[in-house]
Amino acid sequence: MTNRADFLFELGTEELPPKALLRLSDALTEELLTGLREAGLSFGTHQSYAAPRRLAVLIRDVAASTPEQAVERKGPALASAFDAEGKPSRALEGFARSCGVTVDALEKIETDKGTWLVYRHTQPGKTAAEIIPAAIARALDKLPTPKRMRWGSQEVEFIRPVHWAVALHGNTVIDTEILGVKAGRETFGHRFHHPAAITLESPASYADVLEKQGFVLADFAARRNKIQAQIEAIASELGGTARVDDDLLDEVTALVEWPVAVAGKFEESFLQVPHEALISTMQGNQKYFPLVDAQNRLLPWFITIANIDSKNPAAVREGNERVIRPRFADALFFWNEDRKHTLESHLESLKTVIFQQRMGSLFDKTIRVERLAEYIAEQIGGDVTQTRRAARLCKCDLQSHMVGEFPELQGIMGRYLATHDGEPAVVAQAQDDYYLPRRAGDALPGDAVSQAVALADRLDTLMGIFAIGQAPTGAKDPFALRRAALGVLRIIVEQQLDLDLKSLLEQAAKGLDSIIPEAVEHVQAVFEFITERQYRYSLDRAIPTDVFAAVAAVGTTRPLDFEQRMVAVNEFLNLPEAEPLTAGNKRIQNILKKQEQPVDGHIQVDLLQEAAEKALFDAVTEITPRIRAATAERAYTDALTELAQLRAPIDRFFDEVMVMADDAAIRRNRLALLQQTGALFLSIADLTQLNG
How far apart are CA 37 and CA 509, in angstroms? Predict the structure, then answer.
């Protein structure tokens, strides 16, 4: 073997969990590289491979061994190494023995603390064959596999039974056993197209040999791209566009080794079923890709990915069509049954469904949400009548046959059924939109009615669950309160709703008063919980921690106002005046804090003596009305821009004026001037919280 050679590790298993395949592949690669790196074995680039029955890593230019190392071990000081007769001390002899040499082999070194005896030698490097087995074992042990298994009579455990392993450095097999399997140079191809062993002559040939001989496309990304290209080509031939969900595409890629796209068709009569139900079945149950037309209407076609290049593709198509029909037939039946009853007819049955033992039934929750949504609608200018109606119906679809069969369609089915019943369009849309945002980055409810119901539902849950003592702890959040809190913030902030969060929580607690009278005592805790979410929310948008702290210190209870202040302070920091003004404000606040009595902000003009204090007074007097007007309009950026004009007067004041003058009246007057000046800053944010 030359000094460097490519290294290939492949683990062959039963079919791996498709949703975990990429995570396993990434972890295996990272841990294997870390193991080699920590052992001091150098290498070049790398390539990961992941398919249903294999995880593999190709590492280029792996060194044959680690480099030699010059080792120096320090022994006893020369002064204490020998006795009066010049014989080695017991400590010196012990040191020499620990080094495996005689005393004569030791050398002397001079230091600023005297002369010492040392042992110097060259430690040979470890070979790749010694290092790689331990690195593989370490990597496999650290894989994120929560549920491992044993198979046969084996004592080893892994996420799936292991059938073969390849560990090839150049043209040399690494002598090791991996999870009970002796490593070699033989891999295996497709389970049906090429189940026989394939001998690998070199690591670099791995992917090419598997594709050309074994009917396995081992590169996950290449396989994914091939699947997507096949889907797009067939969809184009059929005159439609495939709905390709990224997560589903990843999952399907993890299910096949040799992808072959096949189109299938279903009866157009099924298209009368809400398309979301059909799409949910195709994607979730069958892993099919639905097709839509130019108007985004569902077409009676789907595309499935077979893991075999069948000699009879018609049979593959017919099999997939046959599987989907019973599911679609059930959906059609449930849809027809649900339309025989109005959405509102399910309201009474909600009394039998417990939301939470102390918080009552879904009917009880519906009534609370209705009242709270009405209050919110009044605050944001929404139609109160339509809001009440939307809230009254918002849980009814949970009792429908369709949601019973397709739980993921709650809200969506409410919209369809409300539309079928002839409810106003805004009421029908709210049945779906009040669930928004369902996940991170999701859309938000688009009108005041939906926004009011969405906020009311989340705030009622937050207030009630906190009141019964089940607030989230650590990773446990069974009622998804963190997601609910973030949803509240996103709706208020991103939809520009000028709402007082504390007032909303008090109203929500009032709604719970008859069943949880202590709810009002938890308003502050819920407010702080949501504020903590706003902190995380601000970090996600690159707002610095100190900016958040500066705004939090002024105590605003309106999330939109909080956001506007943070944005303004963040922009203010880019001004050249920001740093000196912040420093000046900190100095002002520090002086005021040191006073034993609160400072009266009344200024006596006739007591202003120095030109610098008169200049600061004039500047403060001039800009105060403009700052008050700007803050009243929440034009905080404009207000901070006005404050920037105080830089020079504040600097001059501290350069030329002694605040703590001997004359008590003069001293009090100057403190009053600082108090008025500092109050202008605090009307926006506490800039003393800013770094720098």
Answer: 57
Under a CB-based contact definition with an 8 Å cutoff, are residues 284 and 408 in contact?
Answer: yes
Q: What is the pLDDT of residues 610-647, one digit of tens each?
A: 999 999 999 999 999 999 999 999 999 999 988 888 88
Q: Which candidate, 8, 1, 12, 4, places its Cα nearest to that of 46?
A: 8
Cβ burial of 153 (10 Å; 0-12, 13-18, 19+) is exposed
Q: Average pLDDT in the 553-578 region?
A: 92
Long-range contacts from 628-637, C-beta under 8 angstroms, 24+ separation: 628/683, 631/683, 631/684, 634/561, 634/564, 636/564, 636/565, 636/567, 636/568, 636/569, 636/684, 637/567, 637/568, 637/571, 637/572
- Whether cis (ω within 30° of 0) applies to the bond prior to 437 is yes
The residue ranges of DSSP E strands in 170-220, in sequence order, are 172-173, 177-178, 181-182, 186-188, 197-199
Beta strand 46-51 with 54-63 is: antiparallel
Q: Are 83 and 93 in contact (CB under 8 A)?
A: no
Tell me the C-alpha distance between 681 and 240, whole Å.
60
What's the pLDDT tens digit per position in 372-405? Answer: 999 999 999 999 999 999 999 999 999 999 999 9
Q: In the numeric block, which tokens belong to residue 417?
A: 């059924």
Spell out the long-range contacts of 626-633 with Cβ–Cβ below 8 A and sequence spacing 24 or more. Answer: 627/680, 627/683, 628/683, 631/683, 631/684
Cβ neighbourhood burial of 542 (10 Å; 0-12, 13-18, 19+) = exposed
Q: How many residues in the chain? A: 692
What single-letter DSSP state applies at residue 599? P
407-443 pLDDT, tens digit per residue, is 999 999 999 999 999 999 999 999 999 999 999 889 9
Q: Is 655 exposed, middle or buried (CB count within 10 Å of its CB: 0-12, 13-18, 19+)?
A: exposed
Cα–Cα dist 297/277, whole Å: 13
Which residue intervals of 71-219 are DSSP H helices? 78-81, 90-99, 128-141, 206-212
How crowded is residue 463: how many other Cβ atoms within 10 Å of its Cβ? 28
Q: 415: burial class by Cβ within 10 Å (0-12, 13-18, 19+)?
A: buried
Residue 289 parent element (H or E): strand 289-292
- DSSP 8-state code for residue 283: I
β-strands 69-77, 107-111 pairing: unpaired
Q: From the CB of residue 133, how many other CB atoms can be counted at a distance below 10 Å?
A: 17
Q: Looking at residue 692, what is its pLDDT? A: 61
Q: What is the b/e burial string over 516-539, where b = at least 16 CB atoms within 10 angstroms of the residue's CB?
A: beebbebbeebbebbbebbeebbe
Rounded-to-integer distance, Cα 654 and Cα 615, Å: 12
Other CB atoms within 10 Å distance of the CB of residue 247: 9
